[in-house]
Fold each of these.
Amino acid sequence: MNDKNSCDEPCPIARSLAFLGDTWSLLILRDAHFGLTRFDQFRKSLGIAPTMLTRRLATLTEEGILEKRLYSERPPREEYVLTAAGRDFLPVLIMIGAWGSQHRSGGKLVYIEDAETGQAIKPVAIDEVTGAKIGSRPIRFVLPEDD
Amino acid sequence: MNDKNSCDEPCPIARSLAFLGDTWSLLILRDAHFGLTRFDQFRKSLGIAPTMLTRRLATLTEEGILEKRLYSERPPREEYVLTAAGRDFLPVLIMIGAWGSQHRSGGKLVYIEDAETGQAIKPVAIDEVTGAKIGSRPIRFVLPEDD
DNA sequence: TAACATTGCTTTCAAAATGATAGTAACACT
DNA sequence: AGTGTTACTATCATTTTGAAAGCAATGTTA
């Protein structure tokens, strides 16, 4: 239950955390969802050291969460855009934010709204099958047996 | 955008990450939701060094996510139980796990089921107001002005 | 009653990760 | 020719982490 990158881990939470368990990667993903794509945009937005940023972008790229795209041939320049896996990470970020809004409020707080209707969004996690809110009923973690 | 505990941060994601942005804290919370409460249970489950565990439990306790409870007077022994804020973190963990299941699958994978009905749970994040899946419509991050 | 086990830590120290600062490479612009 | 932009790399001090051992308060066993 403790090694980082080999991941024979049967726990999907641990698998996610194996490479998303640091603050910078998550903040980079937040900014990527916000629309940033370039090295210097991330660097300025986050105040991150370039060494760190290089490493984090490389890892996220290797992991298939971001991908490099050439946006200028002369001079050759690349930007980092979200892959499908990266875009699928939005609900996770939103739920992290929802928890922060509820339990770490105080002062000005960013909220999210529908880009078209302008309606504020109240994110909740539910079970798609029954529609019940996650947390409203007791759950169990199950490790499937191979019979 | 990078200091940990002062948090005048207007971004709720950054606020959450300020103290939840490390793997150990999240794995401790996972185990706490799984039912573990004692120092040695966490230590054995995670294979974490006691130094680390002490510090992480102390931080989570200070932050009001866990609280200490005396479970034996002689000898005096304490356990760590989730507070309301800690219990509210479950949807975040579940969404992290859901992403891992989708994008880091392979081999045996733990899944979650309803503890009473035994029905497997498919977690999704939706907007409670409209019922739309998070990610199905474009969203915007908004920083409120103080007029 | 002496010895060992249990639980929840603390101490120590080496190794790894991080952060700050400076520098570089490839070009464009003036 | 000199300056600016973008995306980095190199260097090195500081901080964090991890592994191992030790310890205190009690209970249990012989």
Amino acid sequence: MYNVNLSSVTHNSSTNHPVRLPLSRDRILQVAVDITDKEGLRSLTMRKLGHDLDVEAMALYRHVQGKADILDGIVDLVLGEIDLSPYSSSWRMSLRASAISAHEALLRHPWTCGLVLSPNLRTIPSRMRYIESILARLRAAGYSPSVASRGYHAIDSHILGFTLWELGHTIPGDSSGELLETFIRQFDYASFPFLGEHLLEHLKESDPEEMGDFEFGLDLILDGIEGIAVTR
Amino acid sequence: MYNVNLSSVTHNSSTNHPVRLPLSRDRILQVAVDITDKEGLRSLTMRKLGHDLDVEAMALYRHVQGKADILDGIVDLVLGEIDLSPYSSSWRMSLRASAISAHEALLRHPWTCGLVLSPNLRTIPSRMRYIESILARLRAAGYSPSVASRGYHAIDSHILGFTLWELGHTIPGDSSGELLETFIRQFDYASFPFLGEHLLEHLKESDPEEMGDFEFGLDLILDGIEGIAVTR
DNA sequence: CAGTATACGTGTACAATGTAAACTTGTCAA
DNA sequence: TTGACAAGTTTACATTGTACACGTATACTG
């Protein structure tokens, strides 16, 4: 039976000396996600990762191609958290739920957006499954390949773009909002009156009845798609 | 009069020995943009930047705070290229034109998106002017602060998200599309039929009459905003 | 049980990066 | 002439990813 103890050292009773949990790609990636969640992408170094796994940095290379591979791997893990099969009668509600699930996953792991979008052609499995799933639902709803493509783009752009925006105004390690407050205090409201208004808009405790900003934009897009005639 | 020669060495006719163009923040940022456009963000190192300016890396620090400052600076330059005052009778056409201008600027300098959205609270002047300008036009159109805020978000998310998506499928230094082609050839169409269809959709020579994918999503959003009642 | 092979981890080293601190030099005012 | 100052250079260092050679515990083979 597998030992899923989080601590990396366990005890072998027969030999009576400490035995390390064996390293594995999965364990490396899990710890990498933890580090990045807690201390930011900057802190995810091979040495730090090795340290947290009670191992020298170079040991990681037996299980992982290199740092790039690790980055791909943790993105894959996060995107795997997205719920792609929410039960729903309509394509619209189903896509809406998936989009919200994606948004939540990205917020849980704020470093993901930036990584997903670094320009190259890696094929990250869960990312491909995700895209495939959105396209499939639009096609199943009767939309043409062209409309499905464009609809997918609009939805995904909104998810990534909006989440990035949200996160851009979060300071890592400033949960108390202290830095944010000083920022707001010294903001030049005279030069940027509407931006100032916008800032205050964001600070306002939002009515829990009211829809969030993310859903607002999402519905704009879904409305638009719904308005396009299906071709069957 | 200012010497705007791109070469960093000019000739002083009285002393008859080469005289370096003086370094300046502006010149540094210009060259930084050039390097990043041509060789990617990875290649923008202080040493490379110094080399291209015929100067040691450390000389830059007399004119610039550090690398982070340079990154902010080049983002500022690019966002400054966005046309914020396209003549137009309606808010909708005006915003549409600005959004397209922003999209174009981001495509000209593909590294910008990632930089704009790295999470922190720097205040990049042209970015603030840009946001202010969009908000102002929505407010002038009669929308409430809340709708203006959310409308702005939806538009900006689309611009950044969509452009990032586009660029994610571009390989830096693969203008011939060679890498892309091998990617397409070895793509697993059986496992991801709709993604495959989507890929082909992208490869198709687009009808010049037809609207681009960017405008398609943009109009979805603008339609949505237009459908919201103004409050005056 | 002895010998060996293999997988796993370590140690050391190196190149690339950002940048601090001290040094040099060209220019110009007093 | 001097001397102060700004602009660039030199040197050095810490941090990063990772190549390579080396040990060693575990499992397999006879």
